[in-house]
Amino acid sequence: MTAVRLAHLGGGRAWLRRCVGTPLNAALTAAALGLLALALPPLLRWAVLDAVWSGPPSACRGAAGACWAFIAAKLRFILVGLYPPAAAWRAVAAAGLLGGLVLLSAHPRLWRPWLLGAWAAGLAATLWLLGGGGGLEPVASRLWGGLPLTLLLTAGGLVAGFPLGVALALARRSRRRTPRLLATVVIETVRGLPLIVILYVASLVFPLMLPGGISVDKLLRAGAGMTLFAAAYIAEAVRAALQAVPRGQAEAALSLGLRPTLVLLLVVLPQGLKMAIPSLVTIAIGFFQDTSLVAVIGVFDLLNTTRAATLDSEWLGFHDEAYSFVAAVYFVVCAAASHYGLWLERRLNPERRR
Amino acid sequence: MTTGRTGGAAQEPLVSAVGFLCMAALVWWLARNTLDNLDRQGIALGFGFLGRPAGFALDDTLLAFEPAHSYARAILAGLLNTVAVAVLGCVLAGVLGFLLGALRLSDNPIVEALVRAYVELMRNTPLLLQLLFWSAVIHALPPVRAAAEPLPGVFLSNRGLVLPYPVPGAAPLWAGGLLLVLLLAGRRVLPARLVTPARLLAAAGFAAALALAPPEWRVPRLKGFNFVGGATVSPEFTALLAGLVLHHAAGVSEIVRGAVLGVPAGQWEAAQALGLTRARTLHLVVLPQALRAMVPLLASTALNLTKGSSLAVAIGFPDVVSVLGTIGSQTGQEIEVMALLAGLFLALNLATSSALNAYNARLLRRGER
Asked: Is residue A196 less than 8 Å (CB to CB) from chain B?
């Protein structure tokens, strides 16, 4: 792929030939350029030239362009939601901490046991920063929102969902019928249902199943639903990877006299999990986007705070600006993550590089 | 399969029995709590509530619905809405996705880059965000009196989309029947050749019938404060359909691209060596193989689209999930409602996967795999 691209970077004439070489290609090029000429100038005028960058709502009313002043005015609400303004630094620090943990985990050279400890400590610190206690003013979880909440749901769901997913995958491959059947039913049910239905069950049916008087925090219920959802998809990715581990590996280890549990822990799982990494990155990207669905059960994640910001009576109706802004946030994170996934895949399997 | 065995053979029944007892105790405990809680709230378990009048109104359903109608009818109305969105969405996303996939495969770098940018944009932002965006865009359209007319007879306003629709004469109906018969007579949905004489004949017959007895078009026009004639599609339905189609078309285009690129280069070379033109190679050699690789992925996209239609609740369209959600919170019969939803989606999944299995089995039987 890269070689091909370099080849036509070298030859401008070849590139031109590919654009206008045949009548069909010439027509396609003309159509594409026409589309760009039609769409780009108005977009540029709206987003940059005619845009209002600062000022009160009245400054935006007559403007032809985008009202970025709205984003500037509502930025704190979009990013941290209803979190008390005086303590907003804690929400920002929590988001920074989670983002830092993700960056820290990016390079395979740092995949050492201490990283697991760092994640446990980081998640605990995030919960402490957001929730308070121990020297910080307590903040109720219904006031949490925005980017830290989206990151917390993503990280918490994946971190808790991973061991559950691995366990489900192993159970589905088990020789015993009962665990196999149970795991299959759980995985297929969760994967077959829309996430919204799982969130409904977590937020409405699950409380019914607890003894009277015990109530579980809404955010925790949403997190439990998201975790189950993540676990089912992780389980299938891990199962596929485990199936790809050559049988000979387990057979060789068994013939060396290792106990079956050790064969699994020392031989099969390490190889399988390594092979699962690219699909796990894909799952993580999708999961990050899917956390936006918690809005349906009234949790204020990044997308929901953005939507709520457009309902402010002072700044009514700046949907395009709000959604463009939040789309840019999601896009940057997801595009970076998917490029990282491709890089990682090449790095982990250098022999398969094309 | 060599995993998961911890104890010796003698321990195994004991471990199983303990595990089973723990599971049973957990289930009993959860069921007991549930019954206690329902009892305290004065809710009787069971589906008797389905016959009672719903008491709420649903806008925008294919099946007429009023507050006096029963809950069961509300669910049916929601289900029909979901089916309509899912079927229309799958067809439109499929057509658009194939088109985009073909453009993505063209060797024209400008077109390829444009389509790639589109696909990246769709894949890297949440579907819910896209739906909220389209919903906001449609609600911010000019009012009916200043409706935009992107195509002659098609009007877009903040009341939604108004389209002309054809009332077919008798001949096209017969021709449509003939087309179906011929297609069924072929019995092979994906034969070695996509264009067969029978299909060409059927298409020609259909075209001739259309030409001989052209359908009558009901064209909308502005009268007073609204459009008359033509078919009106509500803003919510338009936003949901547009969002789902545009999002999943990007996925379909990637599937198409992957499947065509996945056909070994030797196949192209062999066909070229036999003297087939590029177009005939594509039609006779590459596409039939690529289509087979696509089928399972397309089926899973269709399922995803159907599941994604449940996001309708966020933009106020009464699909089956949002109707059942409303019923659940209104009656308190959450468990029954969720059981209905789960049953519905699991049945859909089961139907899809058994259809796929049958398809695979047929390919295997014919030795095409």
From this structure: yes
**Tens-place pLDDT, residues A234-276:** 999 999 999 999 999 999 999 999 998 899 999 999 999 988 9
Count of CB contacts below 8 A, A vs B? 176
Q: Report which of B335, B45, B30, B336 is spatially closest to residue A211, judged by C-alpha positions.
A: B30
The residues, any chain, with a CB within 8 Å of residue B248's CB and separated by 6 or more, are: B89, B93, B97, B301, B304, B305, B308
SS3 B160: strand
| Buried b or exposed e, range A266-282, using 16+ CB within 10 angstroms | ebbbebbbebbbbbbbe
8 Å CB contact between A347 and A107: no
Distance of CA A288 to the CA centre of its chain: 2
For A33-88, how does the pLDDT look when each residue is reduced to its tens digit (9 = 90+)?
999 999 999 899 988 888 888 888 888 887 888 888 888 888 999 999 888 888 88
What sign for the dihedral angle of Cα B129, B131, B137, B140?
A: negative
Task: Indicate yes or no: CB of A330 within 8 angstroms of CB of B5.
Answer: no
Quote ipTM for the complex. Answer: 0.90
Q: How far apart are CA B98 and CA B105, in angstroms?
A: 10
Q: Which domains does chain B have, with CATH numbers?
A: 71-150+235-365 (1.10.3720.10)
Verify whether the Cβ–Cβ distance A194 to B335 is below 8 Å.
no
Say which residues have a Cβ less than 8 Å from residue A274's Cβ, sequence separation at least 6. Answer: A241, A348
Q: Which CATH architecture is the domain A56-352 placed in?
A: Orthogonal Bundle (1.10)
- Give the helix ranges, DSSP H, for chain A: 2-10, 12-20, 23-44, 57-61, 68-80, 88-104, 113-131, 146-173, 177-192, 195-200, 218-244, 247-255, 260-262, 269-290, 302-309, 319-348
CB-based contact A32 B114, cutoff 8 Å: yes
Q: Quick one: CA dihedral B355, B361, B363, B368, positive or negative? A: positive
Q: Where are the domains of chain A?
A: 1-49, 56-352
Strands B165-167 and B160-163: unpaired
Phi and psi at residue B49, to the nearest 5°? -65, -20
Helix pair B127-139, B235-262: axis angle to 10 deg: 140
Q: Is A80 on the interface with B (CB under 8 A)?
A: no
By C-alpha distance, which of A293, A226, A231, A87 is closest to B128?
Answer: A293
Report residue A39 as tokens.
């769409």
Q: What angle do CA A145, A149, A151 make, to 5 degrees?
A: 150
Shortest Cα distance, chain A CAs vs residue B170, angstroms: 39
**Cα dihedral sign for A52, A55, A57, A59?**
negative
Best probe of the A interface among B111, B129, B329, by most A CBs < 10 A, is B129
Q: Is the pLDDT of residue B196 over 60?
A: yes
pLDDT tens-digit profile of B221-251? 777 777 777 778 888 999 999 999 999 999 9
Amino acid identity at A319 = H
**Adjacency order of strands within the sheet including B160-163:** B148-151, B154-157, B160-163, B231-233
Rounded Cα gap, residues A110 and B322, in angstroms: 45
The partner residue sitting opposite A194, judged by closest CB among B111, B132, B307, is B307
